[in-house]
Write a structure and sequence with these properties.
The chain is mostly helical. Helices cover about 65% and strands about 5% of the residues. The termini are far apart.
Length: about 110
C-alpha cells in the first residue's frame, strides 16, 4: 500500500514501527538514518518473500483449475462413450433376439375352387 500510495497514516506508522529499523543507511558522518517508508517499502516487500509466495499461489491455482477443467471434460467424454456403448448393446441385443426367434410357420390352407 505504501508503494502504491494507498496507505493511510496508521499503515505507515505500523510499517515504520516494524520495518524501518531494519533498513538504516549511514550518512557521511557515520550516523545511521532511517529512510522514509516509501524509500524502503520496495526492498521490504522483496525481503518479505511475498512476491514469490504470490507467484507460487497463482501458479498453483492456475494448474489446479486446468486439471479440474480437464477432469470435467474427461468425465463428460466418459459419460458420452458409455451412453453410446449402451445404445449399441441394446441394438445388438435386438438383432440377437431377431436371429434366435424362429419364424412361425403358418399352416397351409388348401382352398377348393
Amino acid at each position: 500500500m505504501i508503494i502504491q500510495e494507498t496507505a493511510i497514516q496508521a499503515d505507515i506508522e505500523d510499517f515504520r514501527d516494524f520495518f524501518s529499523a531494519r533498513y538504516p543507511i549511514k550518512n557521511e558522518d557515520g550516523y545511521k538514518l532511517i529512510p522514509p517508508p516509501h524509500k524502503i517499502a520496495p526492498q521490504a516487500l522483496i525481503d518479505s518473500g511475498m512476491p514469490e509466495i504470490e507467484a507460487a499461489v497463482i501458479q498453483a491455482i492456475i494448474q489446479n483449475s486446468g486439471a479440474n477443467l480437464l477432469e470435467d471434460v474427461l468425465l463428460r467424454l466418459e459419460k458420452s462413450a458409455k451412453a453410446i456403448e449402451d445404445s449399441l448393446n441394446t441394438q445388438i441385443q435386438g438383432w440377437k433376439i431377431e436371429l434366435e426367434t424362429p419364424e412361425i410357420k403358418r399352416p397351409k390352407i388348401c382352398r377348393k375352387t
